[in-house]
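Protocol step 4 of 6: structure prediction from sequence.
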Amino acid sequence: HVQLVESGGGSVQAGGSLRLSCAASGYTYNRNCMAWFRQAPGKEREGVARIATGSGNTYYADSVKGRFTISQDNAKKTMSLQMESLKPEDTAIYYCAASRYAWVCALSPPWRVDDYQYWGEGTQVTVS
């Protein structure tokens, strides 16, 4: 039974920073693709960043490049998202997602929700 649990959301002023974490269990961690998505009120869920857990290659949406950094700790089976220079438009529920397939990470945008079989319940990030 795969479980993804996010933590680290909260409220911050514009220009501030937050760090999100995702703990994975029941998941073969080191040959897959893991990602962060977000969903703002009234908008579709969108991919933010992803990491190929085997190679460590990372990919970012244009809207967060240079501000967000995705990383992983293979031993702890955790993935993190360091968010800097936050903007009000970053306000959303942030979801951790995992795919069984490493090749998903190499797909061109837009990143499809359906490519990820496992999801966390989300954590709220509010930037004011």
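Step 5 (inspection) to follow. The mean pLDDT is 93.
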